[in-house]
Amino acid sequence: MKQITLLYHDVLEEGAHQQSGFPDPAAARYKLGRAAFVEHLQAINTVLQSQPITIEQLPQVTQQPIPFTIGFDDGGVSSATIIAEELGQFDWKGHFFITTDWIGKPGFVNENQIRELDAAGHRIGSHTCSHPNPMSQCSQSQLVGEWTQSIARLSDILGHSVEVASIPGGAYGKNVARAAATAGIRWLFTSEPVRASWQINGCTMLGRYGIECEDAPRKAAAFVAEDWTVLTREWMAWNAKKTIKRVGGTLYYKLRRWQQNLRHDDKQ
Ligand SMILES: [Zn+2]
User: Fold this and answer.
1) Ligand 1 center to residue 120 CA distance, Å?
2) Does domain 4-227 have CATH number 3.40.190.10?
3) 102: CA distance to ligand 1 center in Å?
4) 73-77, 88-92, 114-118, 257-261: lowest mean pLDDT where?
5) Is residue 65 very low, low, confident or very high in pLDDT (cuts 50, 70, 90)?
6) Ligand 1 centroid vs 45 CA: distance in angstroms?
7) Distance 159 CA to ligand 1 centre (A)
8) What pLDDT score was predicted for residue 251?
9) Average predicted confidence (pLDDT) for the chain
10) What spacing in Å lies between the alpha carbon of 109 and ligand 1's midpoint?
11) Average pLDDT estimate for 233-249
12) Alpha carbon of 47 to ligand 1 centroid (Å)
């Protein structure tokens, strides 16, 4: 099964990036302004040949043209206050991945908003309890706990089972996937920039193409249109970054935080 999924995070009205989602500077590069987000949706719409699907439809839909899904990580409050409204202009359904320890905190969706998104036909999924990073370095019991408890909390809020999730920080590993399968997750979105899906212990892994605030709307549209050059460039950049992470280990994360803090200080 192949699909194209675009991964977004928060969408902001004009002003501080702390309005929605994680307040740290590292998160800011994934947050789009509302006007830019609308331009992304419009650009995607021009190349889209059929409506976006929700993930459980994937086995049933024809693979031509390639199915498209759209998802939003972290559970920032803009999921309910901006994103759902803008998706509604196109009658699109999205996937909202909630970090359950943050439910109801400033800048994050509360329980009612999660129920409203669900009732509007969007899919609610887990983005773990605490957003560990890098998740693939957690112990097996931590991994199972992050998935099991977050799924239980969301199922409790919604009154029905939740079987979809996304991995924080793009830290995919087979250990993360196996723990998700143990927790009963059937669909697990990674940040691997691929169209293919693959199976681990009965759980279907899915790739996603991440969008950052500096990405032009035409880049999002190029992903959806399967522009070979753009897909390949993304794949190569991602794998180069993965190699650096593997070689540099925790040093990579320290350097990244240091660099992001410098950038943040520059802007102030
Ligand atoms: Zn995240």
Assistant:
1) 23
2) no
3) 12
4) 257-261
5) confident
6) 25
7) 24
8) 67
9) 92
10) 14
11) 81
12) 27
Are 6 and 71 in contact by the 8 Å Cβ rule? The answer is: yes
Q: Sketch the domain layout of the chain as residue ranges.
A: 4-227
Distance 170 CA to ligand 1 centre (A): 8
Distance 62 CA to ligand 1 centre (A): 30
> Which two three-digit tokens encode residue 14?
């004009």
Q: Which residues lie below 8 Å from residue 47, measured CB to CB, with a gap of 6+? A: 221, 224, 225
pTM of the full structure = 0.91
**C-alpha 64 – ligand 1 centre gap (Å):** 30
Ligand 1 centroid from CA 130, angstroms:
10
Instruction: Decide if pLDDT at 268 tops 50.
Output: no
